[in-house]
Amino acid sequence: MAQTPQSGSGPALDFFPPPAQPRAFAVQRCIDDAAAAALAGAAIGCGEAALARPVVAIGNFDGVHAGHRAVIAACRALADELGRPAAMLTFAPHPRSFFNPDKPVFRITPDGVEETLLARLGLDGMIVLPFNAALAAMTAQSFFDDLLVRGLGVSGIVVGHDFHFGKGREGSPAFLQARGAAAGAPVRIVDKVTGDGDDAAVSSSRIRAALRQGDIAAANALLGYRWFVRGEVRHGQKIGRTLNYPTANIRLPDDCQLAHGIYAVRVLVDGVVRGGVASFGRRPTFDNGAPLLESFLFDFSGDLYGKTLDVEFLGFLRGEAKFDSIEALVEQMDRDSAEARRILAADPSPPSVLG
Fold first, then answer.
1. Which residues are in the Riboflavin kinase domain (predicted)?
2. 294 has catalytic annotation
């Protein structure tokens, strides 16, 4: 099996480099009955000329972690070799959400961010296929012949070593390689990318597990950058300002399973990155309400209501706790702020997407 070997957590990839020139990025969202149309022999290229006969990297690239970036780099290289555009082919909703609708998938990448990251990594666009009953029922052979080759007109395919597809996950990388050779569409298989000090593959599942435990250091190491969230600042109860700790309050998606606790953070505000300390949780000292991310920005004064902020996480300070008095809470908040400033000053984390 021909492979593009990648090992270790630091493959020779530029990490989200600022583009010398802005790259045009096309997003192709295929019709809901794309799978049925492909089975009927119809082209489903969705009209994006910029992505005609693309080389595709297939998968759900949630997190755009080091393993994903190895696949993307191989896709870009094959596309350049063939003189074709490079695109990510992904699915919405996430297949796990389709098969288990009562178990929301904890999404690592904030909504609206994925396109920006993919463009900075050199892709020309992304193709989004609706994941529905028709697609789930497709055989591996039909997925390749009808959807990839005839429907989308792909020129080449790149997948990870553990990619499986088709009804019952019957399609394997080896199957893709055999079908690709017969169809004249080269297929590249990218070997696993491992974390520092272990042989386990970097995966979105491992990153989610680390975030659930509040292990920001492990999550950031696996991602190869600092995990961040995005959201609009909303009005809260304004308790923080009475404690001399005014906060920017953001409601994270319901699927967010980040451990409740206190974190050292950096926040992008109007193009400027500022350090801070944040609490994510239910505020047990006050109301034990719905989970909320509350960020206190150091050395900042201004109105943030209605603004969209990116908040990246550098370190976990402690778990959420209920205090017997406001005085005890404020004393702990002072200690948390000092520790967050120390972490920010040391700045041992991986690179930042924010700047």
1. 222-345
2. yes
- Alpha-carbon distance values, 222 to 12, 193, 201, 276 (Å): 16, 10, 9, 23
DSSP string, 292-328: EEEEEETT--S--TT-EEEEEEEEEEEE----SSHHH
Note the pLDDT of residue 42: 60
Specify the CATH architecture of the domain 227-346. Answer: Beta Barrel (2.40)
How many angstroms separate the CA atoms of 166 and 137, rounded? 7
| CA–CA distance, 237 with 239 (Å, rounded to integer) | 5
Helix/strand/coil (H, E, C) string of 194-206?
ECCCCCCECCHHH
Strand order in the sheet with 156-160: 3-4, 187-190, 156-160, 55-58, 86-92, 125-130, 26-29
Q: Which CATH fold would you assign to the domain 3-190? A: Rossmann fold (3.40.50)
pLDDT digit string, tens, across residues 48-96: 678 999 999 999 999 999 999 999 999 999 999 999 999 999 998 888 8
Give, in degrees to the nearest 5, the angle at Cα 227 between 221 and 229.
170
| DSSP run (H or E) holding 342 | helix 326-346
The residue from 48, 81, 170, 294 that is catalytic is 294
> How far apart are the C-alpha atoms of 338 and 269, rounded to whole Å?
21
224: tokens are 């190869």
| Domain ranges within the chain, ordered by starting residue | 3-190, 227-346
